[in-house]
């Protein structure tokens, strides 16, 4: 597959994931509040970060030892952000 087609496909995936995140945010926040919103949107955030980083580093579709480390780094940063938001919700400081 050509490089242009991969970039076009990545852009379509990114737009679709962003739209899905927006729908989840609207429905979850209206139905139950911030707690479910964090849990529902976090995996989509990880997929979006993975897609953008691997595309930016030209690693998408390649078997490189950097791919698992990039995904692990993104998961760690996202986990820390989610834990901070959950702590703020639980303590009522947010």
The gist of it:
This protein has helices spanning 3-31, 34-56, 66-91. The protein is an all-alpha fold and 94 residues long.
Architecture overview:
Keywords: Cell membrane, Membrane, Transmembrane, Transmembrane helix. With 94 residues, this protein is an all-alpha fold. The chain has one domain. Helices cover 83% and strands 0% of the residues. The protein has three helices and no strands. α1 runs antiparallel to α2 and α2 runs antiparallel to α3. The longest helix has 29 residues. The radius of gyration is 16 Å and the shape is flat.
Query: What is the terminal separation in angstroms?
Result: 47 Å
Question: What's the Cα radius of gyration?
Answer: 16 Å
Principal-axes shape call: flat
> What is the ordering of alpha helices and beta strands?
HHH
